Structures are given as structure tokens and as C-alpha cells.
Amino acid sequence: MPSDSLTIIDNRTGKQYEVPIQDGAVRAVDLRQIKTRDDDAGLMSYDPGYINTAPCKSAISYIDGERGILRYRGYPIEQLAEKSGFLETAYLLLHGALPSAAELDDWVSAITHHTFIHENIKKFIDGFHHDAHPMGVFVSTVAALSTFYPEAKNIQDEQSRATQIVRLIAKTPTLAAFAHRHSVGLPYAYPDNDLSYSGNFLNMMFRTTEVKHVPDATLQRALDVLFILHADHEQNCSTSAMRNVGSSHADPYSSTAAAAAALYGPLHGGANEEVLRMLRSIGAKKNIPAFIERVKRGELRLMGFGHRIYKSYDPRAKIIKRVADEVFDVTGKNPLIDLAVELERIALEDEYFVSRKLYPNVDFYSGIIYEAMKIPVDMFPVLFAIGRTPGWLAQWQEMLLDKEQRIARPRQIYTGPEVRDYVPIEQRG
Ligand code: CMC
To answer: Closest Cα to atom 21, ligand 1: which residue?
Structure first.
């Protein structure tokens, strides 16, 4: 009679253990009973990079990496990208259900009316060097928000949590755009409450002398779709950072800053920036084969390719390719797109990429669209962070409300020296 359990025989002792299986997993803590001696701390699982460890149960996003499926709260990403808006998707991630018309109105109004930042934050941004990377400015200013809202420490207070969530989603575009304006030496452009979330972001990025800056509707929609595609992605590196830092009961601004810092790296949200630099360095189609050979020799990575979970085409990359055409109708074609398409074609026919199941990920085409929209390359990871903020916050809240969660504190396998006596400096060799 099959049972939902795992029988383990410890060949060191000959003892047999029965460990329950639930939701396709065994509890790592159940391995602790497997010991060779009474004072043994018990068997651990060793999993660098958390390749096969589920630190939580989550009802927010679902990925089937083999079949290239991504859903938020059960809704396919393709449907959300076609029919939803970013703020509606953010509501869905945070509340678990699509809003009614009245709920959406209230939600959009709340976000729209929290887009301003304290004037002192401008002074803080002024202190950065002119060529400071905007992601560094973004991480620091998000963290600094915690000093303006000390009540955010009340993480168990539902109302306070809701307020900080609205503030964070509302203010991240403002901080991002201000970071950009500082880097190009332009005066800060204030939020315009008449505009959509994405429209307002473009306004704060690009307004100059005009009294009212109304960005092109296609570009607003394209940016909204890009934000939707980035909004959540289960337990990735930055979301894990959000949950880890949040598990110590730090306030949500500090946790979001930590998540953004994790996102900054080139293997994660910094990859979109690296893709653009890579395409520029390849320069022409004729140089692609030589570039691919270098990748295969392990000299560098094909940025925007590969994913820990997707072992087929990233569904977000497919949608982005479509959005690119709509954007190019407005902005004119970014010549890098032809290079990227050819690079993808050659890579997907190559045994190296085929055997490792390396396909384009969300970052492969996103930067080409951002560049066509005149967004500077070093802003790309910042845009990823704006899109991911609702997902981070939904995961943070889920973690806080999950009775099983505790402070994140993994074990280790100690490989250092045995105990030894301190040697006075004059006796050291
Ligand atoms: N170019 C060349 N080889 C690669 C690449 C790549 N982009 N990605 C993985 N590989 C190879 C890797 O060398 C290894 O080969 P071997 O088995 O011979 O040693 C094999 O594929 C498995 O790679 P891995 O590094 O063990 O895989 P991982 O799951 O630890 O890493 C990844 C996932 C996304 C960090 C990696 O694929 C990568 O570095 N990609 C480039 C950076 C990138 O585009 N990041 C954006 C990810 S999607 C957006 C996000 O959510 O952050």
C-alpha cells in the first residue's frame, strides 16, 4: 500500500526512519532525528544556492519551468499582460483577488496621492556624486524612507502595513526618476497626479520646459506591461532577501532596500543592463559566432540567457518581444533588436545552449525596449525594481502572516580548524 512517506535507512547505524511527505516535500527538520550519537545535532540537508529547498509555502506566483508557465494568483501572465494594468496586478498580488471597480479606484487613488517624497530626500540625493549609479541611489533612498516613517516598525499592525505598502509602491518611481535627474544634472520633475502610474514615471524622467508632459499612450502601456511582467517571480534572489530581512522584523523600507540590493547584481536584475552592454560590444551580426565561442569556452556568459527555474522559453520574454514591435512603431526601430534576434537564433541552434536548456529570459529583450524609450542603460535595473516592488511586498506580508515562519537562520557545515590556543604575537612564526 503506497503511503505519503519516505523510508530512510541510515547505513552508518542501520536504523530506519519514516519521514512524512507533504506537498511533494519532506521537512528538513525531520532529518534531525537521524543521528549517529545522542549528542549529534542530526542530519542536515546541504543546498548551496537553495537549488532544492522550499523555505516557505506561497500562494502568490506559480512557475512551471519545464512548460514555460507563469501565473500570478492563478492568472496566466499572458492574460494579465494583455488585459490588466500594473496597479491592478499589484492589487491582485497583494490581496489575492482582482479588485472590484470601486476597490481599484480607491487603490489607484491611494497610490497616486502618495507619490510625493519628503523634500529632505532631495537633499539626500543631491549628496550623491553626479555619476552615482542610480541603482545605488535607489537602494539608499528606499532605505532612508524608513527614517521618515518610523511607525513602519509596527509590522504587526495591519493598518500600518497597508500604509507603508501604498507608500512604497507610490514612491519608488519618484525615487527612481529623481536618481536619474540627479545623474544628468536636471532639476527634479515632480509627480503629476493626472497621469497614470507609468505615465507619471515617464513624466518625472523626461519633463523639461513644458507645463504638462503627457507621454505617448503606447509607451505608457508598454511600460505598464513591462512592470506587470516583472511584478513577481516566486522565491528569486531578491524576494528571498526581502523575506530574510523581513523575518528579523525589520521595517518594510529596510527590507525593500535589501531586496533591491540583491536585485542589483548582474546575475539577477542587473542582467538587463549587461545585455545592452553585451549587444553593443558585439556590434554586428558577423561578430556573433566568435562571441558565442567565447561563451562556450567559459570566458563570459550570454547575458539574458538561462534561468534557474525555466528550462524552456521564459514566457515573459515572448511577451516582451511582441511589446518591442509596438514600441518601435512609435520610437523607430532599435537596431540592436536585429542583433539580439540573430544572437538568439544562433544560440538556440547551438548544442551548448540546447543541452543546458538555456533560453532567453525576461532581461534579454527588455533593455532594447527601454533604450528605444530613451531610458539610460544604468536605469534598467531600477525599472526592474519598480516593477518588482509589489511582489516583494506581497511576499513580505505573506511571510509575516504565516505562523510557520521564523527568523531566517540557516545551518552550516563547519570546515574550519578544531579548537586551538591563542598564540601571543611574539611567538608566531
Ligand atoms: N551563458 C552561458 N552559459 C550559461 C549561462 C549563460 N547565460 N547560464 C548558465 N550557463 C551554463 C553554466 O555555465 C552551467 O554550465 P556547466 O554545467 O557546463 O557548468 C550551466 O549552464 C548551468 O548554469 P548555472 O550557473 O549552474 O545555473 P544557475 O541556475 O545557477 O544560474 C542564472 C541561473 C540566471 C544565474 C544563469 O543562467 C546566468 O548567469 N544567466 C545570465 C544572467 C542573467 O541573464 N540573469 C537574469 C536572470 S532572469 C531575471 C531575474 O529574475 O533575475
So the answer is: 356
Per annotation, catalytic residue among 307, 325, 329, 350: 307
Distance of CA 380 to the CA centre of its chain: 12
Q: Where are the alpha helices (DSSP H) in 312-413?
A: 315-331, 336-348, 351-355, 362-372, 380-401
Question: What grid cell was written down for 127?
Answer: 549628496
304 lines ligand 1 (CB under 6 A): yes
Residue 4 buriedness (CB in 10 A; 0-12 / 13-18 / 19+): exposed
367 lines ligand 1 (CB under 6 A): no
For the Cβ of 311 lying below 6 angstroms from any atom of ligand 1, the answer is no
Q: What angle do CA 318, 323, 325 make, to 5 degrees?
A: 105
pLDDT tens, residue by residue, 312-346: 989 999 999 899 999 999 999 989 999 999 999 99
For Cα atoms 229, 360, 323, give the angle at the middle one, nearest 5 degrees.
45
Rounded Cα distance, 144 and 142, in Å = 5
For the question of whether the overall pTM of this predicted structure is more than 0.85, the answer is: yes
Summarize pLDDT for 31-77 with one digit per residue, the tens: 999 999 999 999 999 999 999 999 999 999 999 999 999 999 999 99
pLDDT band at 3 (very low <50, low <70, confident <90, very high): confident
Asked about 126 being catalytic, the answer comes back as no
